[in-house]
Amino acid sequence: MSSISKSAFKKFLDQMPFGKVVQKTKNAHRGQRLWPSQTSKNDKKYNFRADKGSKLPDGRQEIIIQANKNADDKGVRESAQKDSHRIVAKVAVDPVKDPQGDSINEDALNSFEENN
After folding, report:
1. Model's pTM, two decimal places?
2. CA distance 61 to 95
């Protein structure tokens, strides 16, 4: 199995509109895609997707990042084809204290390194 490169993951994070994603967690249901919108073009282009996870007791919202099965990046694609539900990274954000998602990038990279 090819591994997911950190550079592919960083590229995804560099494109993610953190503030918009954090705001979407308020009204989305658990498991619902937050970003990018679900199209085969986006799945291929962005390689990953961000879904809403659980709401934590302290009010923070989990954001789950997973690989897409038809990703352009070979390592990402092979990983997703092996297990499309595997969590590549998971972060918790506070929509009240951190509405712009300033903590997401660093937390997601740390989670990625722990999980890959």
Report:
1. 0.93
2. 7
